[in-house]
Amino acid sequence: MTYATAPYGTWESPIDARLVAAHDGHPESAGTVGAEVWWTEPRPAEGGRRALMRLRPDGSGPAESVLPEPWNVRSRVIEYGGRPWAGTARADGGPLIVFVHHADQRMYAFEPDAPHARPRPLTPVSAVGEGLRWADPVVLAGRSEVWCVLEEFTGERPTDVRRVIAAVPLDGSAASDRSRIRELTGDTDRFTTGPRLSPDGGRAAWLVWDHPRMPWDGTVVRLADITAGGAFENVRAVAGGDRESVAQVGWAADGSLLYSGDASGWWNLYRLDADAARSGAGVSGALCPREEEFGGPLWKIGHQWFQPLEDGTVAVLHGRGSPRLGILDPATGELADAPGPWTEWAPTLAATGTRVIGVAASPRSAYEVVELDTRTGHALVVGSAHTDLVDPAYYPDPAERVFRGPDGREIHAHLYPPRHPATTAPEGEQPPYVVWAHGGPTGRAPLVLDLEIAYFTSRGIGVAQVNYGGSTGYGRAYRERLRERWGVVDVEDCAAVARALAAEGAADPARLAIRGGSAGGWTTAVSLTSPSTEGLYACGAISYPVLDLVGWGAGETHDFESRYLVSLVGRPGDHPERYRDRSPVHHADRVTAPFLLLQGLDDVICPPAQCDRFLAEVAGRGVPHAYLAFEGEGHGFRRARAIIRAVEAELSLYAQVFDFDRPDVPRLELTT
User: Fold this and answer.
1) N or C: the chain end with fewer CB closer than 10 Å?
2) pLDDT tens per residue, range 139-176
C-alpha cells in the first residue's frame, strides 16, 4: 500500500467531534425483569438524558426506549448517583417499573404495558436543601413497597444530609405525604447502600461506612432480620471494618451470604454459610483466593461485581487491571472465563435463570450489553451493539505497559500510538503525545475503544493513559500509594511515563502535553505548577478540576467527598502546609505552559469558584490560556454541544502549541 506523508497532528480523519459526542457514555444499570433485560443508555443529542431501555424476550424486535424525552433515568444520591431503577414481573398487566427522574429526583412508578401508560410519582418534593433523593431500589410486590436508599437534605449546606434505608408505598400515597415513608434503619451511619434480601425474604444485608472513610477504605456489612410487619430487628455487623473494604454483598440460592472484601489486600469473594448468616458469626474464607480483584471502588450505589446463580455457581468479574467475566463454582473454587472478544466488563452484572447479563467492551469495540448462557457457554450482544461507523483502521492499536517510577515502583499505563490507514509521518519525526490522567483518583482508565482517544490518534497525536499509584485494579497496596500523597505520586507517575516515552524515542520531548478531568484535572494542574515537572509539558487541558485544597476541603464540595482529603492529603489540622503547598491556585506564578480550562457551571463536586480563583491568579502573567464554561453542565459533560466544543478546543490548543495546522476545527482564542 502507498502511504501519504504528512506531519503528525495534521492527518485527516473521519472521526470528528460530532461522532465522538454521539457516542459519549455507555450503557449502565443492567437488570432483569422476569425474562426481560433492561438498562439505561446515554442520549447526548437529547440534552444528555439517560433513556431506560427494554429488551423483550420474545424476539419481537430490538430494544426500545420506554420513556420519551424529557424523562431522564438518573439518580443524584451522593452526586455520582446510584442504581436508578428496579422492576418486577407480574402475571397480569406486564412489568411494574420504578425509576428516579433526574430533573426532580422523585421516584416514579411506571406500567409500560398499561393503556395510555404514564409515570406516576411515588415520593414527595422537599423544599429543604437539595431535597429528597433515591437510589438502589428493590420492588417488593408482596408488601406493595419499594425498599431503597433515601438521601434527605436537612439544611442548605451540602453536608446537611442524612441517609437511611426506607420503604416507599407503591400506591402513591407518599407522593404528597412524607410521613407515609417508613424508615427501616436509623441515620447513625453516614452512608448506606440499598438492602439485599435473602431468598426466603427473612433477612436483609447492606453496606455502611462513615466519614472520614471512603468506601474503598473501610465498610461494614450489616445484617438484620425482617419481621412479619416489614421492620428490621436484631441488626448486627457481620463482616468488614475500618480497614477492610467490602464492595458488594449478596445472597446465594442456599441462603448463604456472599460478599467481596479486601482483607487479604485484594477484593476476593467470601461466604458466610446459612447458619452463620443467621447468627452473624463465622466466615468460611475466600471462595477463590487470588491476587486479583473481585470487586472495585463503590463510586455509585448499587454497583454489581458478582451475581449468584440458581445452580449455586456465581458470575464474577475478576482480574488484575481489566476485569473479565467468569463463572465460579464455590464448591471447588474453579473459575471458568466466559468466551468472546470482550476484555473489560463494567460493574453492572445481572442474572435470571442460567443467563448472565453484563456490559462489556474491548480495544476494538465500545461497551455493549452482553448475555451469557451458562448452560451452553455461548455469549452474544443483545443491546447497544457496537457498530463501526468508520473504517476500524482509524482506531488506535493500544498496548499495556508497565513503567518504573522514582523508587523503582511499577506504573501501569495504556499506550495509544498514532495510527492511520493511509498516512504516515516524515521519516525521523517523533509524534506528539498527551498524557491522560484519569479521575477519581481512586479509579482506573479502562483499555477499551474510546472514540475521543481515536479522534486524536487518527490525527497523529499519541495518547498515554496512566493508571498512576492510587488506581484500582492492582490490589490495596497499589491504590494506597496515594494515601496522603495526592499531588505527589500521581504527578510523579505521569511524569515518569512521559519521560520514558521521550527517552525511548516514542514521543517528541518538545511536544508532550497532559490532560485530565476532575481528579485528573487536579493532577494536570499540579503538573503545570510543580517544580518537579518544570519544562516537561508544553501545554495542558484541565477539565472540571480541584484547584484549591483549602477551599475544597472546607465546604466547597459535596458530602460524599467532603472528607476524602483526609486520606489523600492528611488531616487539615495536622498538615495545613500540605493543603496550601500542593494547591495550584497558590502557585499560579509557576505556570508557564499554555492551558485550556473547561468547566460546567452547574458542577457541585468541583465548583466553578475554584476556576475563578485560579484564573484571577494567572491573569496578566503572560501565559496563553482559554477558559470555556458551559451552562447546564455539571461534573462531566453530557450534552453533545458541550462535548463537541470541548474536543475541538483541545485539538486547537495542541495545534497552536505543537505548531501544526488544523483548519477543520474553530481556532481556540488564547489570552494572556
Assistant:
1) N
2) 999 999 999 999 999 999 999 999 999 999 999 999 99
Please give the Cα distance from 128 to 656 (Å, whole number). 48
Residues 331 and 313 sit within 8 Å (Cβ to Cβ)? no
Q: What distance in Å separates the CA atoms of residue 480 and residue 567, rounded to the nearest whole number?
A: 9
Identify which of 347, 289, 341 has the alpha carbon closest to the alpha carbon of residue 315: 347
Helices (H) and strands (E) in the chain, counts: 11, 39
**DSSP β-ladder status, 410-416 and 399-404:** antiparallel
- Quote the cell numbers at residue 214: 471512603
Q: What is the DSSP string of 411-434?
A: EEEEEE----SSEEPPTTPPPPEE
pLDDT value of position 57: 87
Please state the separation of Cα 191 from the chain's center in Å: 18
CA neighbor of 542 nearest in space, from 558, 523, 561: 523
Query: Which tens digit of pLDDT belongs to each residue from 311-368?
Result: 999 999 999 999 999 999 999 999 999 999 999 999 999 999 999 999 999 999 999 9
Q: In what order do the strands lie in the sheet with 334-337?
A: 306-308, 314-318, 324-329, 334-337
Q: For residue 332, which phi and psi values (nearest 5 degrees)?
A: -115, -15
Q: What DSSP designation does 141 have?
A: G
Question: Length of the chain, please?
Answer: 672
CA distance 293 to 316: 10
C-alpha distances out from residue 526 to 437, 545, 569, Å: 12, 10, 14
Q: Which residues contact 128 (CB under 8 A, 6 or more apart)?
A: 152, 153, 154, 155
Q: How far is CA 403 from CA 410, 415, 439, 515, in A?
A: 6, 11, 20, 19
Cβ neighbours of 620 (radius 10 Å): 8
Q: Give the CA distances from residue 562 to residues 158, 428, 482, 523, 558, in Å, rounded to whole numbers and listed in that order.
A: 9, 50, 18, 19, 6
CA distance 153 to 155: 6
pTM of the predicted model, to two decimals?
0.96
Residue 362 contacts residue 449 (beta carbons within 8 Å): yes
- Looking at the DSSP bridge assignments, the partners of residue 400 are 414
Q: For residue range 527-574, what is the model confidence (pLDDT) as tens digits?
A: 999 999 999 999 999 999 999 999 998 889 999 999 999 999 999 999
**Nearest-CA neighbor of 132 among 62, 88, 207, 75?**
75
Give the β-pairing of 512-517 and 539-543. parallel
CB 107 within 8 A of CB 122: yes
Residues 6+ apart with CB under 8 A from 625: 594, 595, 596, 597, 615, 618, 670, 671, 672
Burial 133-146 (b: 16+ CB within 10 A, else e): bbbbbbbbeeeebb
- Asked if residues 209 and 189 have their Cβ atoms less than 8 Å apart, the reply is yes
Distances (CA, A) of 116 to 19, 86, 112, 170, 611: 35, 21, 9, 19, 48
How many other β-carbons are positioned within 10 Å of the β-carbon of residue 485? Answer: 19
Phi, then psi, of 162 in degrees rounded to 5: -135, 155
